[in-house]
Amino acid sequence: MHPSTRLLSLELSSRTVSRPLYVCSSCRHEPLPRPLSVAQQIRPNSTSVTENLRRKLWGTENPPGLKDPYGGKSALERKWGRKGQSAAETDADAVEVEEGEIAPPDEYVPASTADELPRIGHLGKWSDYPPTEADVYKRFMTEKRAHGPSVDQAAHLAAVEICLLRKLDKPVSSPCHVREHNTEIQRLLLECRIDPSAATADWGGAVVFPNEEAKDALIYVFEQIGNLESEQNAEQPQEKQAGSKEEMNAHLFDRDNFKELSFTSPSIRFAFMKRFSQLTGHYLPDPLIHGSSTIETALQHVHNMIRPRPKLGVELSSNPALQNLPNVKVLNRRHRSSDIDQAVGRKKVIDAVLRERGLLGR
What's the mean pLDDT in 71-99? Predict the structure, then answer.
């Protein structure tokens, strides 16, 4: 309740009930809120603070001397004001000039399709020009990944190539410029043998040729391949093979002991891993490259990677510990409701009813 309302009720009750409840007029008017004027009285003040102070010091409204000598803008402020005013006028003129230049001509016709819009930048499309050498993408690895005997075949090819290049004193990374040899060169490479006992520190004397004709042909070919390190654009002509590698050359290196070759230097190890990854199409991680000591380590990694993983149902069903558990039956495939119906004998009844209703073919 408002204070004035409470006091008014006390005053009324004092007239009717008793004297002690009487409230005087001063007490009745004190709690009332005083009226406050919301409107602010603003008076014009033409004189500055410094001029008023000057008048007080002189004790007169008309002190001697100049009018308001300490007030107003200083010389620097007046100079900056003139500069700002001239700069604003210059900007306004520039804006007017730009608007006049940007304004469309009288014969402007708005575009209705995307082809009618003006092009910014190159006047033509990149698709209008024929492809260049930079636009052609060439895979580093083979298109199909090697599996089974082709993995050992690729390792044998990489080892023989590196041995030939070390024998000819050529860069060991040169074979990577030729992604795949033609059929005849590949057959000669697979007929070569690796002798780990005769291998030197750089694998130069480890290769054993099948005959002199194969030796001369391979030396001639790898002399050209070794020069590709300085001539990046040169390529060896390739021919498509008539049959698969597994059918044609899988038996040529079965009893070869090239897997016993050890990596004597980091450069040879990296060159072999690079060429082996290119021929097989499988990615070799860095820990394998740095941690391998022989060719057999890389072969084991690739064979483990491409080996098909057994299904979980087959593994669980072949576990004897799970087969002997009470009230547990492990199946090697998904068990559906139709299998349950067949196990309890409901499937024949359901099929008979569906055939009677014509919902199942007889």
Answer: 67
